[in-house]
Amino acid sequence: MSRIDEILNQFQEIAASPKKQSVKYIEQGKKIIGCFPYYVPEELVYAADMVPFGVWGRQGTINAAKEYFASFYCTIAQMNLEMGLTGVLDGLSGVIVTSICDTLRPLSQNFRVAVPQIPFMFLSHPQNRKPEYGITFTMAQYGNLKSKLEEISGQKITDEKLQNAIKIYNKSRNERRKFVKLAGEHPDVVTAVKRSAVLKSSYFMLKCEYAKLLNELNTELEKLPIIKWNGIKVLSSGIIMDSVSLLKIFDDNKIAIVADDVAHESRGFDVDAPENEADPLRALALHFASQDNDPLLYDPEIIKRPIHVVKKIKDSGAQGAVIMMMTFCDPEELEYPSLKKALDEAGIPHISLGFDQQMVDFGQAKTSLQAFAESI
């Protein structure tokens, strides 16, 4: 087995077993903080010497959470509450829940009431994030979060610790951007299933450990010759598409994901936090202000994100786009017409498929993806 295969297997094991990973950290004496979507400043958790742990739902059936949500809610929100209600998250020393969309707001309040055994931290992001008043508001929110994390950890989050955390996270983001490019150049080695596992595992590892292992993988991938891909290349878009069953359809039909516009993946590491700010809290606020091209973020130029997606497709050499629409996600559904128009005007073939975390049968998606691949 090559070193590349060994590292990819390690990432796959971590992505498939977050509980095992959390137990490892707890046994090391570390506290774990659950970070719900989106845009949680994990650097604050890291600087408190705790482990930020991504909570983006999971594949399975929703039962207990149905008492709190209507059936037409996003399954990520429902599944996160389900995990809290059924004890899956009981090993956490706290959770940070944001309010950046109309579904996450009620999730935050329902979680606070329904799962009282886990310390709860609410984080409100401003939609007007770029003006100075928006940056000031974000800093105030991060300051409140910092105080609560210090209380849980029993440690002071100094400017020095936070500045160091920002540098570590920037290194991690840089390695992930590099990996996405290399994975697109070597789809014969980094399949859709393995690509997803590498990116997903970042949510369950300390970023210093993750960046080190990913750097080794990137170094090995850079040594490989670039081959001609005997299949089609696409960009994937949506909130999350970490289902092994779904991604295996891509691999079985030689559909390589060479770039993505997925919130759970590249959107989270598109830009770095500034390292030259005297106040690291301001650096984190500026980092959030610099986030763009997300249906959940306010943008007066509504066409800007579709243009960004079209450019990403062209730059990556993708031949089309696969858009995974999260069921009952209003922001994605409202944005789709403008995205479709931009793709059509650019002459880029695309397909839109529904997705939620309770799906077990991807037969319809398989048929649609096969037909899409044959049409290109």
Can you give me a brief rundown of this structure?
The protein is an alpha/beta fold. About 50% of the residues lie in helices and about 10% in strands. It has a domain at about 30-155: Rossmann fold, CATH 3.40.50.11890.
Word description of this protein:
The two termini are 35 Å apart. This protein has 14 helices and eight strands. The longest helix is centred in the middle third of the chain and has 27 residues, at 159-185. Helix 6 (132-153) packs across helix 11 (280-289) and helix 7 runs parallel beside helix 9. Helix 3 links the parallel strand 1 (32-35) and strand 2. The protein has a domain at 28-157: 3-Layer(aba) Sandwich (Rossmann fold). It has a four-stranded parallel β-sheet with strand order 2-1-3-4, with helices on both faces. Strands 6-5-7-8 form a four-stranded parallel β-sheet, sandwiched between helices. With 376 residues, the protein is an alpha/beta fold.
* H/E series: HHEHEHEHEHHHHEHEHHEHEH
* Radius of gyration based on Cα positions: 20 Å
From the 3D structure, determine the CATH topology of one domain.
Answer: Rossmann fold
Strand order of the largest sheet: 2-1-3-4
- Head-to-tail CA distance between termini: 35 Å
Helix content: 40-55%
Tell me the number of helical segments per DSSP (H or I, 4 or more residues long): 14
Q: How would you describe this structure in keywords?
A:
single chain, 376 residues, alpha/beta, Rossmann fold, four-stranded parallel sheet, 8 strands, 50% helix, globular
